[in-house]
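As a warm-up, study this chain.
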Amino acid sequence: MQVIAEEILSGAAASVIFTSIPSGYRDLLLTVDGRSDGAASDALVYVSFNADFGNNYDTQLLAGIGASASSAEYLGLGAFLTGWLPAASAGADISSSVRILVPSYSLTVFQKTVLSQSGRKIGTASGNLYTVEGAGYWRNTAAITEIDLFLGIGNFVTSSRATLWGLI
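Now compare it with the structure written out below.
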């Protein structure tokens, strides 16, 4: 693994964008640790490729909350839904993380796939822990040269971090 780029926010930001991604790796891994300032307990984390915000993304999620499990399918979205981060009404000083694996990102043969893992905590009571496994598909065969990371509500807060890794 090699760090390609990293953003540690010195102030609130609506998005984190990685551009000019080199093609010399086998896979990409995007790791996110942070929180949203949105007026909610949590915020959805979205990812899109190459500034494509059309309805070209499909996502399947399997989630666990407390002792319950659920699944959901989303077709034709404007970005991948990859997980959740705590937001403004979550417990103080809590952050959470998302990992997004992008296999074969530079090939131009197949539609792109992502695999995501997310853990979200909003407090210490039962039902405040959440884990998500996901798979997503971009309906495009283009090599990925840009990754846009953004939230469904609010901004990433100061000290949130996004790291793009190249896997050899």
